[in-house]
Design brief:
There is one protein chain. The chain is of the alpha/beta class and about 375 residues long. It is built from twelve helices and seven strands. The N and C termini lie far apart (about 85 Å).
């Protein structure tokens, strides 16, 4: 019987035994030399974007406590993953984020208030996906992976010079949608990179209760996809590995799964109480691996940044936060009838019926309000 193997040796698909890194937690160059360090200007930009992203994240959390946002999933601790991945994208590439990736959207150049529109409960997506080549933030786990693979395969068939980056959490890899996305991408050679931000917890479910695979990157092997395991708190290695994987994808080399080992410092969302399932010592240990402190230590130690430059970055971050704070004070205009727009190219009879029912209810409520004495 003829062999049905692809001809690709299995060992080339396997991830490294330990997460790869370029800068260690103390800000020193690691012994790993498999990737050169990104240029100094890229390292400085990674640091700058992380500082701005962290300040934006803190401001969004404060807005949630003030009632200006309905919910906010913090990115604190995962900035290296989101920013390293986004900065690796080419000008024609697409990004498909999840609900936790607000810092990635900010780094993509999307207006900060538009980033928060979904979390404010005002609109399906606050930004134009086509303008920013960024899919709407995805709340259901792993559905964005299917959307991304569809776009990537369409680009491949048309001969477009496009690669797609999917952001996923560890919990998303337990979904059937992730299986379908990995398998379809592998079979058809879709130019897509799956960046798994493994922060150790799917809300309150630890990784060991989700998967018995040695790492989540090992899951790629079963689909015939290369798996790469990196230190998700090292922005330099995230950028380098994702950059290489995107270039490979654009060149016809097919998909890659990159697992970035990181940690969610804050609660799952403002509605979560993480003290019920994890202890303070675990969080403290990961705080000592902070991605911003690591990059700053490297830049300082190698004369790539000084106090004046750091003060400038921090001032820029405060300016972004102040702008968000000021603009979010205004009440947002909400038109309930817009719920039915952009669901389908042409409204279905069911949508028209639902829109009519809502309009009747709103009209009835308005009549009642008018009858109430002032």
């Amino acid at each position: 019987m003829p062999s049905r193997k692809s001809g690709v040796p299995g060992h080339e698909l396997l991830p490294s035994p330990q997460p790869l890194g370029l800068i260690d937690p103390d800000g020193k160059r690691t012994a790993y030399r498999g990737h050169p360090l990104p240029p100094p200007e890229v390292l400085r930009e990674l640091h700058r974007r992380m500082v701005i992203g962290r300040r934006f994240d803190r401001q969004a959390g404060a807005l949630t406590r003030q009632g200006r946002l309905a919910v906010y999933p913090s990115s604190h601790g995962q900035e290296a993953c989101q920013i390293g991945g986004v900065l690796a994208l080419g000008p024609g590439d697409w990004l498909f984020p999840t609900y936790r990736d607000s810092v990635a959207l900010l780094t993509r150049g999307i207006d900060p208030v538009e980033v928060l529109t979904l979390l404010r409960g005002s609109w399906h997506s606050g930004y134009d996906p086509y303008r920013y080549k960024t899919g709407p933030q995805c709340t259901p786990l792993a559905t964005n992976a299917l959307h991304a693979v569809g776009l990537a395969d369409a680009a491949r068939r048309r001969g477009d010079d496009v690669a797609v980056l999917v952001l996923m959490g560890d919990g998303a890899t337990s979904e059937g949608d992730a299986h379908e996305a990995f398998n379809f991408a592998a079979v058809y050679g879709a130019p897509v990179v799956f960046l798994i931000q493994n922060n150790g917890w799917a809300i309150s479910v630890p990784l060991e209760k989700q998967s018995k695979a040695p790492t989540l990157a090992h899951k790629a092997v079963g689909y015939g996809i290369p798996g790469r395991l990196v230190d998700g708190n090292d922005a330099a290695i995230v950028y380098a590995v994702v950059h290489d994987a995107l270039e490979k994808a654009r060149g016809g080399g097919g998909p890659t799964v990159v697992e970035a080992v990181t940690y969610r410092i804050e609660a799952h969302t403002n509605a979560d109480d993480p003290t019920r399932y994890r202890d303070d010592e675990e969080v403290a240990a990961w705080r000592r691996r902070d991605p911003i402190d690591r990059m700053e230590a490297y830049l300082r130690g190698n004369g790539l940044i000084d106090d004046a430059a750091l003060d400038g970055v921090r001032a820029e971050a405060e300016e972004v936060a102040a702008g968000v704070r000021e603009r979010m004070r205004a009440d947002d205009h909400v038109a309930p009838a817009e719920l039915f727009a952009h669901v389908y190219a042409e409204q279905t009879p069911q949508l028209r019926e639902q829109a009519a029912l809502l309009a009747a209810e709103l009209a009835a409520d308005a009549d009642v309000d008018q009858e109430v004495p002032a």
